[in-house]
Amino acid sequence: MNTAYSPRTRPSRIPVGLRAPFSGQTWREFLYLMLSLPISIVTFTCAVAVMSLGAGLLVTFVGIPVLAAGLTAVRGLGYLERARARVLLGLEVADPRPVRPAKPGVVSWTSAVLKSGVSWRHFLYGVLHLPWAVFAFGVSLTFWLLAWLLLAYPLWKWTFPAYLDQPGIQMFGDGTPERSWYMDTPFEVGVVSAIGLALVFVVPWMFRGLTHVDRILVLGLLGPSALDHRVSELESDRGVVVDTAAADLRRIERDLHDGAQARLVNLAMDLGLAKEKLLKDPEAAAKMVDEAHGEVKVALQELRDLARGIHPAILTDRGLGPALSSLGARCAVPVTITVDLSRRPAPAIEGIAYFTASELLQNISKHARATRATVDVWQTDDRLMLLVTDDGQGGANTASGSGLAGLAERLDSVDGLLVIDSPIGGPTSITAELPWRG
User: What is the enclosing helix (H) or strand (E) of 419?
Assistant: First the structure.
């Protein structure tokens, strides 16, 4: 396959190791390490001073609001640290949940701040980051200067005889020429420069390692806790469930309005006309009643299809295997169904698995141009696995408008997962993983 790259997207042919000393990432990380020391001094001073002052004033009860104010100030510095990590390290850290007092007032706000684990993690960051920042600052600045100075040694070697009265860098000795070794010959000068060149290419990876520790500290102490993250996920999932339910209700309303309801209205009108003609023209009335009888059958079939789309009776009565077999029989391509379950999962999970298979088989019928498909269902530990494959044209993804994006959101709302493997030209394999919850 030929791939065309624009000038902005064309990958560089220079190896990453050779580009590292001159890359923007290296210089941003170096700037981050240099700024860490003064910023950590301010953060440490604020955290320790306020904590000491608040602890000393606890006997007068003034220390409690002082502690709360200090923790709030440290949280403000944490906001700046997250912004600095985002700009210089490319580290996206969500802001933790704000302090939410139970009631208005200073007392409630003070209590909320002191009870907040986020506040105390920010304080811990302010205390722990200073010793690390001192170490990282010293190591990074020392090796950065050493690397470039050694590399440029041939340019400034002349300063030794001119100002220090020695031929070059002294490796060892007691000051006497006979017992001293100086790096002054062309070969030795080249060796020093080569060592500097090697350090120039090593130092960027040293910056990566040092800033990796900073990333861990920022993520672990300044970001939202695991509980907050889980709450945010549940709030997002709840929104997805509400939106999905609203969309389903709109679909049912539209299907009723455009389908069965419209047919029943026409049926009522036809029966009214047949009633008027019953005495005057019995044959015409009988014909209209016969047509109305056909409309009743169609309306009943539409209502059955609609009920099956809401929740099929066969799924409730007989389980996932027979329901999927019934679903496969209505698919436009031959489908092989294999269900290996020793027991039934929770009804809600069973329903989601059924409608996931239904959506995927509809996509196969409409878009895949496949000649056959398979549906496999099995249990692995506490997970329900659903695998749908076809031999179609491939290219399925969540951005193609095939409904897969909404399906992935629906699965995510119950801690499920949708994995798509669909190269251009096929075949396509889509795996849905759901919690068992039996």
Answer: strand 417-421
Q: Is 101 exposed, middle or buried (0-12, 13-18, 19+ CB in 10 A)?
A: middle
**Integer Cα distance of 219 and 85 in angstroms:** 10
pLDDT tens-place string over residues 36-88: 999 999 889 888 888 888 777 777 777 788 888 888 888 888 888 999 999 99
- Residue 11: DSSP 8-state: P
Classify the phi-psi angles of 104: left when phi > 0, otherwise alpha if psi is within -120 to 50, otherwise beta: beta
The token duo for 376 is 């496999």
Q: Can you name the CATH fold of 315-435?
A: Heat Shock Protein 90 (3.30.565)
| Cβ count near 50 (within 10 Å) | 21
* C-alpha closest to that of 77 among 108, 111, 41: 41
Contacts of residue 280, Cβ cutoff 8 Å, sequence gap at least 6: none
DSSP 99: P
Please, what's the b/e burial string for 238-274 (b: 16 or more CB within 10 A of its CB; e: otherwise)? eebeeeeeeeeeeeeeebeeebbeebbeebeebbeeb
Q: Angle 24-56/63-88 helices, nearest 10 degrees?
A: 180
Q: Helix 63-88 and helix 117-151: axis angle, to 10°?
A: 40
Spatial contact of 371 and 391, defined as CB atoms under 8 Å apart? yes
Cα–Cα–Cα angle for 56, 222, 95, rounded to 5 degrees: 120
- How far is the C-alpha of 3 from the C-alpha of 11, rounded, in Å? 12
Percent of the chain, pLDDT > 70?
74
What pLDDT shows up at residue 38?
Answer: 93
Q: Which residue reads 């299907």 in tokens?
A: 255
| pLDDT winner (highest mean) among 127-131, 170-174, 218-222 | 127-131
- Topology of the domain comprising 228-310: 1.20.5
Tally of CA atoms within 13 A in the half-sphere of 152 that contains its CB: 9
Q: Which residues contact 151 (CB under 8 A, 6 or more apart)?
A: 193, 196, 197, 199, 200
Residues 6+ apart with CB under 8 A from 388: 357, 360, 361, 364, 373, 374, 375, 376, 429, 430, 432
**Structural domain spans, the chain:** 20-222, 228-310, 315-435
- What tokens appear for 127 in the block? 């205390």
Model pLDDT for residues 411-424, shown as the tens digit of each residue: 877 778 888 888 88
Over residues 350-368, the mean pLDDT reads 83
Helices then strands, each counted (H, E), the chain:
15, 7
